[in-house]
Design goal:
The chain is mainly α. Helices cover about 60% and strands about 10% of the residues. It starts with a helix and ends with a helix. Its EC number is 1.13.11.27.
Length: about 280
Amino acid sequence: MDRELAEALVAKLETAGAIDSKGALSYSCAEDREVITKIIVDLEPSLAHSRAYVERITASVIRASYLNLYKVLGDNLDETTYLSIVRNKILVDVQGKDVLMQIFSSCVLIKTGQVEGPFLEFIQRVCAKKKGNEGGDSCHGENDGSVTKCDAADEVYLKPGCGGFGIRNFLTLFLSIEVSKSLAEKAAAEALADPVLRDKGIALAERKIAILTEQLEESNPILSMITDCMTAEGAATDGGRVEEAKAWALKKVSANQALKVCSMKYNAMMVALQDEDR
């Protein structure tokens, strides 16, 4: 799909109410493929006979609603699971071949909504499906090293004691909150009557969003390296491979330092942006 058609599709989705003022695809639309498919075909009737191509475009539109998750987890989860995670606002991370999920409840034990209160946090770690040094033990296969198959289709084994939680989620949570605030600021600016203030507010909010998004994208591979090092160090330690464990520990320290440098870089960018706005 060329850029012109893509932009026309976005505009059509906005008109149809499928995309909100913050650029997010509605859950109801994402879960109804036919709505998106119809918009695509109405926009470009010549595609009506290219069902496979239209389906790829539809899948790309839907994937946009969970793109950041997909960049981390890839095809480890199916589309339905991804949409469920987004709809329920679940934080997700991956460590080794395990998927980690975290969700917070609203405040409890409070009489009004204007005061602080405790909340509940639920954490689940779904362990790898495949047998071997890197995964759980629910599946088994031949001794030739071929891909293993589970006894029950799509059954996931919860390995006892494989606790712990991904560090990526804490940074993702912070950045997602800041992005949401910036999107709200952009929407508020768009509603201003004064064109000068409106344009200035929109530009500032868009720059904030760009910085925060770029930070998340640059941090992701570093965070993956940290979790991979932790996993490999643990496996080497369990296997009695002392020198290998030390090597992974050093790589982990280096990755942590890279994350600090990355965070300082984007913190400086946000400070500079705020100084410009004064």
